[in-house]
Design a protein that fits this description.
Strand content: 5-15%
Helix content: 55-70%
Number of strands: 8
Radius of gyration: 29 Å
Strand order of the largest sheet: 1-2-3
Largest sheet: 3 strands, antiparallel
Order of helices and strands: EEEHHHEHHHHEEHHHHHHHHHHHHEE
Distance between the termini: 75 Å
Shape: globular
Number of helices: 19
Amino acid sequence: MGEDEGSGFKEGRYLIRRGDGQIIQLTKLMYLLVEQIDGRRSLEEIAERVSEQYGRKVSADNVKTLIDKNLHPDGIVPGPDGKLPRLKKPDPLLALKLRCTIVPDRAVNVIAGLLRPLFWPPVILAVLAGLVALDIWYFGIHGVGQGLRDTLYQPLTMLLLYALLILSVGWHELGHATACKYSGATPGKIGFGIYIIWPAFFTDVTEVYGLGRAGKVRTDLGGVYFNAIFSLAVGGVYFLTGFEPILTLIMIQHLLIIYNFIPFLRLDGYFVMADSTGVPDLFGRIKPALSSLIPNRETPRKVRELKPWVRKVVTVWVLLVIPVLLGLFTMMIISAPRVLATTWDSLFVQRREISKAMSGGDIAKAAVGGIQSLMLVLPVGGMSVTAFNVLKRFGKGIANLYSKRPALGLALGMVAVAALGFAAYVLWPNGEYRPIQPNERWNAEEAVEAVKEIDTGRPSLTEDRQEELRGAPPVAPEAEAADPDPISEEEEEDGVSESPSPSPRSTSNMGDRDGTEASPSLRLRLRAFLAAPCRRHGGDGLES
């Protein structure tokens, strides 16, 4: 494929396409060597031709060593038996399952051609200005709380949001393809796969490697740019309809953008950094970059071979991403109790609706309630599985590091234990597992205030905030009434509420309450959910 334009290495790099379609970056010597290997020339002939082009003497023994140690193990040149080695399969944790093509390359090229005007500079400026205005209103003024609350109390809405989420991910991939087309390369197919339970799309834009730095970076950013356009479209729908749950998609789009910029996965942010600096293997540079910051220590070779400005950019990139990830982790832990409590409370709302539908013989409505309950459980299950896999792999990584470098492994293990301790301290039930209330906004200002209250052990709902919310009562406190066992005085004191609660969509009846109302105990709610019998009409009332 020729020389890699905009390479960040002191010595130029060259690109080849392996038989399986993978793009490989080589030094000039290795590239010249591959050019001369045709299956007919002898080692001496190859060495003579490479020496002429390279300008330095290369022997037949050098050629044989380079083939045996580099080109054959990397699957570029067959061995003496004429076979290529079996290369290591991708890490299952990061691999897509059930991959398939959904849009062939011809159709992708047609669609990308139609969408090319979206990359005209005036259009880009207008989209970015609109996104800034939307973010100021949504995150700074309106807040994310009510859209999230309404979604959790209307789980069937999740079906709509889930469908729109899949659409947005496909739209994201069209952004990559369109940017590739706009930059002068030919995009390939768009495919689909499943990661855990989440939809995942991919776009074949390998032709972009033949472009300059600007074309590569534009293609990398095309996906998140289309996420911004999608957010603006969602905002327009909300202002036309006032449908609060749809605003959750704006939050999801921003989470997708942030997720795509995580450098520890081969996502958009990784390729933006790789293509802008001309360093394709950034993963292998993180550890050397950090090691180079240690005083009185020799700079690793993987850092020395980079251009000076590239070394600085890579180092800054590594240092900046750490606090961003810590901030996201912290906010996820802080908000988890309230989100889980809202999901739990909504399950009781759905259970009540299913019971009413069954008592009236409305099987269709009961089935819808079952689907809504499933939509509530599915995201929590998916996040739990993902968290478990990540923790398991992180634990294995620490164990492997400890076996090689005990001191460093022990230090990293202590950091991991401290992080788990922080999470346990915040997540331990301390009265804060209460549903999101109708008048809560959850904007940026409230997020900062929550971080300041971490030392209380319940930053998501401090005692003062709970009092302001009149106890932050659940929507379905009457669920424990379905418990077939009598409630003892001790259990009643444990927090069973007898007062009616507001409807899921009410925003005005919170002020009618006097005093603080406690949520039913988790044990009673769980027992009621599992043990309460279905009801049916029996003349004047309801019978078991």
